[in-house]
Fold this sequence. Notes:
The structure holds two protein chains of two kinds. By secondary structure, chain A is of the alpha/beta class. Chain A has a domain of 70 residues. Chain A is built from ten helices and ten strands. In chain A, strands 6-7-8-3-9-10 form a six-stranded mixed beta sheet, with helices on both faces. A four-stranded antiparallel beta sheet of chain A has the order 2-1-4-5, with helices on one face. The longest helix of chain A has 14 residues. Chain B is mostly helical. Chain B has two domains: 39 residues; 234 residues, MetI-like (MetI-like fold), CATH 1.10.3720.10. Chain B is 75% helix and 1% strand. Chain B contains twelve helices and two strands, in the order ααββαααααααααα. A two-stranded antiparallel sheet of chain B has the order 1-2. In chain B, α1 crosses α12 and α3 packs across α11. Chain B is globular, with a radius of gyration of 23 Å.
Amino acid sequence: MEPAIKINNLDVFAGKTQILKNINCEIQKKMITVILGPSGCGKTTLLKCMNRLTDLYPELKVSGEILINEKNILDPGADIYKLRQSMGLLSQRPYPLPMTIYNNIAYALKLRGVTKRRELHKLVMDYLKQAALYDEVRNRLREPASRLSIGQQQRLCLARGLAVNPEIILADEPTSALDPISSRFIDEKFQELKKDYTIVVVTHVLRQARRIADNVIFMYLGEIIEQGPSTEFFENPKQEKTKLYLEGMFN
Amino acid sequence: MKRSLKVEETVFRVLMILSTAFILLILGVIIYSVFEKGMRALSLEMLTHIPEGGYYYGKGGGILNAIVGSMVLAFGATILAFLIGLPVALYINVFLHGKPKLVNLIRFILDLIWGIPSIVYGAFGFTLMVLIGLQTSLLAGIITVTLFILPIMIRSMDEIFRTVPMGLMEASYSLGSNKSELAFKIFTRQSVSGIITAVLLSFGRAIGDAASVLFTAGYTDNLPNSLLEPVATLPLSIFFQLASPVPEVQARAYASALVLTVIILIVSLFSRGLGKRYHKTKINF
């Protein structure tokens, strides 16, 4: 099968420091790919290249090729607004928009072009249910989203991310700020969502990677050390650095 | 704890308490003297009537002309400055995001303009009036005061927008928002309390300044009824009354000062209240 994302010879510089060195990898469709590695190895930067949030950081110089549906998204002419809509983002800590719970999702739906009130209402309810948030917030839809707990906010952000109807979900350590119950919910939700979505998760937690990954990309100091199917990676690592990492010798 | 550390701690604490007390004392003395002198001359008639016998020699009537004039002028200038300032502040923070050198230059220039004394604005406004053939009038006053408070308005909103977290920008971009949606739907909502503070701060400056309106708005004993006629303002009514040779009129200057102080006090309290109310809708950190 065609990969969802194909990255060729990607280099990222911040000034004279090279953050990502000659990255070549493939993200398979409808699977969970975990980008694993110790803090500061460039995982998050790699993720942000995929929806060009790197544009927000003028000090970053990105070169190479990221192919999605055979189009290079690093091309200056690429439609980045459409590109970003084809991807949902879940960040390390939830950032609800400064509006009501209802409008957080309605905002995303309107960007996607839903305008009829009745349809809007129905879809908002659907996405709240998808994120298992509906029962908790059904009576407080008009309250500011900031009044939710962090775990609820992260689920709201997931619902909002799904509402733009993406093909790919990018998640940057999505459970690192959450309590164990909310974390488990997100992990389980990903298992369910991979039937319909391609999912990329950045994490430095080995246990989480073991639990959810279909494929693993292991990074160290801006380079990909090893990549492949999860079982292969954890049970039969090829590289010396991978073995050391799995034994807990880093960090 | 070591003895020397303890001494150091005590010395600095005493110094801080002293300087705080000093500031409070100054504030207290100013408010006391304004109230003390102002209350003696203040009467209902002063608040509800226009001057009788001229603002310079007249002992009768009131300062309604200046109260209404100041309000109209300050409101007009604040609204105008808001309409110009909000887009500028948003432009700096959303559209110019990622061009730190240019943004720093703009901020530096705005800070320089902020520092220009208001009498210079008055003189500039006057030059401008001559150029376009405008006489001393409410309109000329509004234009000049707008220019005077514009840097204050822009920079205070700018400082608020700078605190919008990067993650929120990323979140709304990743939903596919474009820059104007980010600016007008996310930034403004996230910063409501700060925007209100910026507006009221600018209003306070607009209503309290005498020098910028001296040549541009002029002065009159009548209520404002046209944009093209001169208008009275509270700071100038204090200025003229205080300069009068008649002691009763001088006393009325303090009553005018009291009115101005109370207006600014109400505006500040109001802004605090509104700011607190909207603060709750911000995301929690």
